[in-house]
């Protein structure tokens, strides 16, 4: 019995110390977990705040660029409209060959000048813009094939205008309509 009392004298303080240490470690762990969760939440909030600030700053730059791209593409379509194109390029006493080359060169230069705008407009708008450009080129080439290159350009110009696009089948109008729809979707 005395041996049991001796064992209890040694064991009991150890068990009490172990229990106290266990409770303290458990509370310490709870506090650490709370602090860790708080710091993690604060970090996540900071990331969200930084992302929002970045998006706001990015939008201040990208929205005007996108809007400008839509404006430039609308201007491009108006500039390659056969009537507007002829008004700018046709010179008195021109020949078909010279006018034909000038028209195609003007369209190509306008297109190359505005190619980078495809980064900002929708894929569907860009495809319609390219199709409109190709249709205008095709119309010009078809009209040019009816004349000799030395003929007076006024007949060639009249052929382009008279055989131009109909209201139902006008690729320039279709592309402009798509650009307007994109602007309404993206900027309203």
Describe the protein in words.
The protein is an all-alpha fold and 188 residues long. It has a domain at 63-187. The protein has helices at residues 2-80, 82-89, 96-114, 123-144, 153-162, 171-187. The chain is rod-shaped, with a radius of gyration of 38 Å. The mean pLDDT is 90.
Structural class: mainly alpha
**What is the chain-wise order of helices and strands?**
HHHHHH
How much of the residues is beta strand, in percent?
under 5%
* Anisotropy-based shape: rod-shaped
Query: What is the helix fraction of residues, given as a range?
Result: over 70%
How many helical stretches?
6
Radius of gyration: 38 Å
Mean pLDDT: 90
Query: How far from one another are the termini?
Result: 91 Å
Low-confidence region ranges: none
Total number of β-strand segments? Answer: 0
Largest sheet properties: none
Features:
188 residues, mainly alpha, 0% strand
Briefly summarize what is shown.
This protein is mainly α and 188 residues long.
How would the blueprint of this fold be written?
Blueprint: H1 2-80, H2 82-89, H3 96-114, H4 123-144, H5 153-162, H6 171-187
């Amino acid at each position: 019995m005395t041996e049991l009392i001796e064992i209890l004298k040694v064991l009991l303080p150890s068990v009490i110390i172990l229990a106290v240490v266990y409770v303290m470690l458990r509370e310490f762990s709870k506090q650490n977990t709370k602090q860790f969760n708080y710091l993690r939440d604060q970090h996540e909030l900071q990331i969200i705040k930084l992302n929002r600030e970045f998006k706001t700053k990015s939008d201040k730059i990208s929205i005007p660029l996108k809007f400008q791209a839509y404006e430039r593409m609308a201007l491009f379509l108006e500039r390659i409209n056969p009537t507007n194109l002829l008004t700018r390029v046709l010179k008195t006493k021109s020949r078909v060959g010279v006018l034909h080359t000038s028209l195609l060169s003007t369209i190509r230069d306008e297109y190359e000048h505005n190619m980078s705008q495809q980064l900002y407009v929708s894929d569907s708008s860009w495809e319609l813009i390219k199709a409109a450009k190709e249709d205008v080129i095709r119309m010009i080439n078809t009209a040019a094939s009816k004349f000799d290159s030395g003929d007076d350009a006024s007949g060639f110009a009249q052929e382009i205008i008279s055989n131009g696009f109909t209201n139902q089948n006008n690729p320039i109008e279709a592309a402009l309509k798509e650009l307007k729809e994109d602007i309404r979707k993206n900027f309203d």
